[in-house]
């Protein structure tokens, strides 16, 4: 019987006392001292047991699984190499199918997933389809070892960085043009807005005056036998109708003028500003890809 001491705290110790088959049923003597004694089985005696039939079955299944995994890896590698050949020949669609087949055969390998991204981006030169392969992109970079990531960074990052800088320059240039175009048009836009607003208020006031006048005269129409109230009442309602039509026309002109004024105050609303936004989005995407390569 062996004892092994473990420090518990300042007040005492724990002693582990092994029991085997011979003394498992015996009452062992109390240990002296203030420590705590725990009886544990002696697992070393089980080390020499012969494996059972169930153990043999587990071993056979494990070996069978390893053989299947090895076969899948080899098959996936073969399909991947076929995809690389098609990609080098310019057959992007065929290469993409091969890369997907390889990933389906053995998904733990990062190379087929990265191949899908290369197909969608035409080897990182056209990013219009990159959002169609977000899942492949994430899987490729999550599985990619640091050494291979560094090699790919040396290959792709210089061109990506140059393109990002080009996008940044174009963005700044187009943003400046957007500001200048909006400032040049601001006086005309504000004048059109002011005129439309003035006409709208006049139409609204006229409509209100004639409508109130007609409503005020209407109760007196039947109080007298002649038409002294009827004619003015009809004239007021007719004028209110004309004013309502004029009000609608003014409103239709005011809404576009107000929208033009709002757009003129907002950055990126000109054609140059729209192009600047596109270059800004591309720059952000490129720098995100560069970060994934270099982190």
UniProtKB/TrEMBL annotation:
Residues 1-22 have a biased composition (Basic and acidic residues). The keyword Transmembrane helix applies. The chain crosses the membrane at residues 200-221, 227-251. Residues 23-34 have a biased composition (Acidic residues). Residues 1-37 are annotated as: Disordered. It comes from the Bacteria. Keywords: Membrane, Transmembrane, Transmembrane helix. This is Tetratricopeptide repeat protein. It comes from Candidatus Borkfalkia excrementigallinarum.
């Amino acid at each position: 019987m062996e004892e092994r001491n473990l420090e518990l705290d300042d007040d005492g110790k724990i002693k582990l006392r092994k029991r085997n088959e011979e003394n498992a049923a015996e009452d062992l003597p109390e240990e002296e001292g203030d420590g705590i004694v725990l009886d544990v089985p002696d697992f070393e005696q089980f080390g020499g047991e012969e494996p059972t039939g169930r153990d043999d079955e587990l071993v056979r299944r494990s070996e069978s699984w390893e053989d299947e995994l090895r076969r899948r890896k080899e098959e996936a590698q073969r399909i991947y190499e076929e995809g690389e050949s098609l990609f080098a020949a310019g057959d992007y669609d065929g290469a993409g199918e091969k890369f997907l087949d390889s990933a389906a055969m053995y998904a733990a390998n990062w190379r087929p997933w990265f191949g899908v991204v290369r197909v969608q981006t035409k080897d990182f030169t056209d990013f219009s389809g990159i959002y169609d392969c977000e899942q492949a992109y994430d899987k490729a970079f999550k599985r990619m070892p640091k050494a291979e990531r560094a090699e790919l960074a040396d290959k792709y990052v210089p061109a990506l960085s140059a393109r990002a800088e080009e996008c940044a320059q174009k963005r700044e240039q187009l943003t400046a043009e957007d500001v200048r175009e909006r400032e040049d048009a601001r006086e005309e836009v504000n004048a059109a807005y002011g005129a439309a607003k003035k006409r709208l208020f006049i139409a609204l006031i006229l409509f209100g005056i004639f409508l109130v006048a007609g409503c005020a005269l209407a109760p007196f129409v039947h109080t007298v036998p002649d038409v002294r109230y009827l004619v003015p009442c009809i004239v007021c309602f007719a004028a209110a109708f004309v004013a309502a039509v004029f009000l609608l026309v003014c409103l239709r002109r005011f809404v576009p003028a107000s929208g033009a004024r709002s757009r003129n105050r907002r950055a990126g609303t000109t054609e140059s500003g729209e192009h600047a936004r596109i270059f800004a989005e591309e720059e952000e995407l490129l720098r995100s890809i560069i970060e994934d390569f270099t982190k």
